[in-house]
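Lab notebook, entry 265. We have the chain sequence and a SMILES string for flavin-adenine dinucleotide, and the next step in the workflow is to get a structural model of the bound complex before anyone spends time on docking refinements. Request logged below.

Task: model protein plus flavin-adenine dinucleotide, output structure tokens.
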Amino acid sequence: MKPAAFSYARPRDWPEALALIASGARAGSGTQSLGPLLNLRLAQPGTIADLRHLPDYAGVTRAGAVLRVGAGTTHAAIEDGAVPGRVGEIMASVARRIAYRPVRNRGTIGGSLAHADAAADWVAVLPALGGTAIALGPGGERRIALAGFVTGIFETALAPDELLRAVEVPVLPPTARWGHWKFCRKVGEFSKATACVLSVPGAAPRAVLGALDGPPLVIEDASALLADTEAEAARIVASFPELDDWRRAIALTALRRAVAAVKQP
Ligand SMILES: Cc1cc2nc3c(=O)[nH]c(=O)nc-3n(C[C@H](O)[C@H](O)[C@H](O)COP(=O)(O)OP(=O)(O)OC[C@H]3O[C@@H](n4cnc5c(N)ncnc54)[C@H](O)[C@@H]3O)c2cc1C
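Result returned:
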């Protein structure tokens, strides 16, 4: 199918972008998810506001102990090292396993979060890194912990008149340990089960179980999971009775493997 007719708008600044959204336009970033929605006519916006030319929409800056990643930063830029330091190593390792390079060349971190596919990578990984979403609305910027950003399948905490402007991720020490396991039937497919564990010396380890039938499960203190992995992983997975047996089995394996990776010497 072809999309229904729509107008194309290219806002030059954020106030213009917000005004377009307020008038009913649909935000567009890399259009890797919006495109199929348009083609299937699941979305029929009158206007698409192409955010990619906004100032500071893409790119990474550091302010003290926080890295700010523009929502329009592509997966490919992250894969290629746009994010510095230990966080950058972790994010690059995640980015290079999202879809295929042509998708990564256009798909953005902000578009991925705003789309809120339960199986998407950043939806699980950024809460594990302690990230924060920076939303921009008519009243200015609003900070939303990424642990609570996705509220359902294709649902987020963004208000209808808000745009996702950036994400912030705390700088990590070089000693931070990371475990990540993602099950795909073949390379480039969306995950069927995702688990991440971050362990920073002196802080409680954090874990996330993603690719569920809803928002990811964020465990702010995963000490018990690291101490008694078999019992705790089984308890966590059993709390999702809505998952089929095979999905519970791969979720369990994802948790085990993410913990094993974080414990690797
Ligand atoms: C073949 C294929 C395989 C894929 N595999 C994976 C995978 O393995 N893992 C994975 O994580 N992803 C995967 N994706 C998704 C892809 O990585 C993109 O991240 C995703 O499509 C959305 O990013 P985008 O920049 O293209 O957003 P768009 O498609 O432009 O937008 C997506 C949605 O977000 C809204 N939106 C966009 N930007 C903003 C904003 N700044 N503020 C508010 N709302 C906004 C749009 O209105 C739309 O509803 C895959 C996509 C394809 C086509």
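Notes for the group: The chain is about 30% helix and 25% strand. Worth checking against the assay data. The two ends are 52 Å apart (CA to CA).
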